[in-house]
Request: fold
Amino acid sequence: MSYLVLARKFRPTTFDEVIGQDHISQTLKNAIKEDKVAHAYLFSGPRGTGKTTMARIFAKALNCKEGPTPEPCGKCQNCIEIAKNQSIDVMEIDAASNTGVDNIREIRENVKFGATSSKYKIYIIDEVHQLSTGAFNALLKTLEEPPEHVIFILATTEQHKVPITILSRCQKYRFRLLSTNEIAKAIKNIAQKDNFEIEDEALKIIINASGGSMRDALSLLDQAISATTGKITEEYIRNLIGLLPKEIISKTIDYIAQNDVESIMKICKQVYEDGYNVLQFARDLRDHLRQLMIFSVNPDLSDVSTEDKKLYDRQKVLFPISRFIRMGNLISKALEEMKWHDQPRMLLELYLLKMAEPYYNVAELISKINELGKHNLASMPELKEVKVEKIVTNNEISQPAAINEPVEEDTVVTMADSFDYDLMGLWKEIVAEFSRKHPMSAQTLKDATVKELNANTFQIAVPSPLSLNMIKMHQETIQKLMTRKSGREIKVSMVLDEIAQKGGVIKEDIKIETEEEQPAREKFVVVEDFKETAKTAVPSKIESIAKKFGGIAVKKAKDSAKSGDNEKSDGSSDTETEE
Reply:
């Protein structure tokens, strides 16, 4: 007789024997008791969690000679045939190899006929998500309104690939991954029944490698049993699966903490030369970092053996939580890229070196900066309470308040926020460069008052709304000039200077020395012909334009207008220039 693997030998035969899916088992049992069995079910979830097993148990419960019953006897002919997958009334179809429309059409033809020796004809379609679109469409009507004697049970590991039209016609049950304790308890029961021994550490390795799948755990256990005649040890399981020795992983963590680049490279070389898989090395390192991070938060939450607690106690203080997060992200990214890289060893070395780099998170940097600032202020107590206001008005800078003099409340810049520079010289340079590019608007800046509100904000006040509108057109240029000249990010705000409008400040021209001597500006009078209008006053816009260029606007008399007309015939204009 051929050997029967553990996954088949110890397959559950009743609802109560199914591990970790009590929420589904109890619901199906109640449905049978209350005679509320639906015509279509969808079992979805990860591999090896009991979907097909549950479907077979459900089929036995419905077609048992003593049923339908939530507790199938397992001894009648129907139960035995279903358990051996030999029943002609319970058909298991692999959708991966029967994906076409013709296969579904065959089912549609067969559902018309009743069951042979059972109450229900049951179709179990495994991996149903692999059916073609045409096959799903052919199944729709039959799945929605099958004959009373037909029940469909669909199983899939990828529910998102099943069309919504199919999902809406089924009762959906989601199978979950099994916990560590559930798998451990099941394997210990199997070991007792099958007469073999396994160490606790070896059992933990099998459970971690299974990823919550009972079938994967039993497959690894089956492989270990067939390869050894004695007790299954941790060392044997490590060699069987290809895990690296703990010493290599723990040393790698120490070298990362010490930023020992040379030792990290030696470890990578050793792993490669000893024939270990570099991908497995990265996985083991990731798992160790995860357990170490959990142990540093709360040792009770981690799955660490008594023997390893000393190692974890020593290493948990090597990194803060932020460093664990960074290293976890880096090693996960390395694993993702190594699968497709032609040089996975080189990629792993690069990521390990990056993990070993000194790292400070933002909170730590801010804390260090604050400590340095407090230390500097503590060493200069005479500057703690000093406040200074820097203003450039009429080409002069107000002198900073003396240290021992009282400071007014409306001052805005502290000494710690300011820096040592010549504000007057800075403003002259800005006005000079601006004048070369925008000579028509330069006079507005010369008449402006500049005030430093704080370390990174300047305010430009101008005496008239017209000037304000004009410099606002060049606000971005002025801001860039101030940023470039001061060497830091400067924000410029522009306002109307109310004090200057009231005559409280005497304005003086700023003399800008340029490479070429500027010719003296001529004053001129703008004269407007009011022949066609009845206005007696000079319009304000004309006055503003004249003032802008250093002239005045006057109303021209009628005689002057006539003479102006005569002059026009000679080619002259209405604009008169006065020296």
Remarks:
- Residues 524-577 form one domain.
- Residues 327 and 489 are 34 Å apart (CA to CA).
- The chain has five domains: 6-174, 180-241, 246-355, 387-501, 524-577.
